[in-house]
Amino acid sequence: MTYRAVIVGAGIAGLAAALRLYRIGWEPVVIERAPARRSGGYAVAFFGRGYDAAERMGVLPALRDRHFGAVDMIYKKADGRHRFTVPHRAVQALLGDRGLTLMRGDVEEALYEAVEGKVAIRFGTTLTAVKQNQDSVCVELDDGTVLDADLLVGADGLHSTVRKLVFGPEEGFRRDLGHVVAAMRLDHLPDGARERAFTTVTRVGHIFMIANLGPGRTAAFFTYGVVDPAAELAKGPRRALTEAYRDVTWAAPDLIRGMSADSVYFDSVSQIVADRWSDGRVVLLGDAAWCVTLFAGYGSSLAVGGAELLGTALLRHPDDVPAALREWEAELRPEAEERQAMGRRNTGSHAPANRLDLLKRDLPLRLAALPPVTRWMRKHLRLH
User: Fold this and answer.
1) What angle do CA 380, 382, 384 make, to 5 degrees?
2) CATH hierarchy code of domain 177-270+348-381
3) By CB distance 3.0 to 4.6 Å, which of 82, 141, 215, 240 could disulfide with 235?
4) From the CB of residue 254, how many other CB atoms can be counted at a distance below 10 Å?
5) Tell me, what's the pLDDT at 295?
C-alpha cells in the first residue's frame, strides 16, 4: 500500500520531510506559495540532531561539500575600527568535528537536489481549506485542485497557513521576543569586511553582521530590540533600519540605502508556543510548530532532525497516523522546548539590552581560544 502526504512549505522542514517520507516509501507532494525556490538567508551552524539526521538520510555529503569550515569572528566599533577577533581555530573548537558552517540556503539546496525529480513540488500554490476524517485528510488549493492524503504536514513557517486553518489564529501561538530581524543576500563584500569571516558591529540593543562564506556567499544581518514589533514592521525595512542604525557609520548606511524591499527578509523575532503539534492526520513541523528563533541558533538543525524523526515514527505506525504523531511529539518536544528556552535566554547575547549584557557577551568571546572557556561555551550553547 502506498501512503500519501501533502507537505505545505518547500523550505528546510518541508523538503526534509519530503525526502524522509519518500525514502520510507510514501508518496509526498509539496505545496509552496512562492513562485520558485528561494535562496540565500543568513549563516547557520548545523549540528546535533540535524547533523545526525542528515547523515542517516544520505544528504550529509552534499552538506559537507557546501561547508566552508570555521571562520574568523571579527568585532568592530560602529565606525569600523577593530575591537577584537575570535580566530577560526577557536570557532572550530566550538563547532567540533560534527558541526558545519553553512548558509541557510545551502541546507535547502542540498535537500532540494535530493528530492528533485522524485517528489512533486507545486510552486505558486497555496492552501485554502482542510477537511479530515478518521481515514484521510482532504486539502483544497487556490487553483481549485483537491488532494486526498493520509497525512498533511504544515511546514510553512512562522506564519503557517496550515496552523491557522486547523489549530487557530497565529496570535494564539506567537510569543514575540521584542526584536525584529532583517537579512539579505549581498552581491559584493563591503569595504572593511573580510572574506572567510563574520564581521559584526554590536551596539546596545542592536547587532549588524556581514557574513562571508566565500565567493558569491555573502549576507547582511540586522537584529535589534523594539517595544512594538508590529509597529516597527509597518515602517518597512528601509525606514526602520535607517532609524535603528543611524549611529552605525560603517557599511550599514550604504547597504540600507541600496536595498529593495522585496530582497530583504524582515520580520519579528517570535516563537510559536503550542500545547500540541498535531490534530488527527495534520501535523506541524519546524517553525510552524515551535520556531526556536535565530537566538537559539538551532532552527535548521531541529527542522531536519524533526523531519527525520517524523518518518521514523510513521515507519513504526504506518496504519495509525495519529499514534505515530503522538509518539513523534513526545520524543521531540523536550528538546524543542529546551531550545526555545535557550533562545529566550540568549536575547541579551544577540542584541545586548545594556552595557552589562554587552560585557557578559564579549568576555567569553575574547577568551574563547582558551580550552576551559571553549569547553564552557560548548556546554552553555549545547554545541554537541
Assistant:
1) 140
2) 3.30.9
3) 240
4) 11
5) 85
- Which residues belong to CATH 3.50.50.60 in the chain? 4-39+48-67+102-173+272-345
The residues of the chain scoring below 50 in pLDDT are none
Per-residue pLDDT at 376: 58
CB-neighbour burial class of residue 216 (10 A; exposed 0-12, middle 13-18, buried 19+): exposed
Which residues lie closer than 8 Å to 275 by C-beta, 6 or more apart? none
CATH of 4-39+48-67+102-173+272-345, one of 3.40.50.10490, 3.50.50.60, 3.10.20.30, 3.40.190.10: 3.50.50.60
Sheet holding 282-284, edge to edge: 120-123, 27-32, 4-8, 151-154, 282-284, 278-279
pTM to 2 decimal places: 0.91
Number of DSSP helices (H) and strands (E) in the chain, helices first: 14, 18
Q: Which residue has the cell 513526545?
A: 330
Q: Is 74 helix (H, G, I), strand (E, B) or coil?
A: strand
Looking at residue 52, its amino acid is D
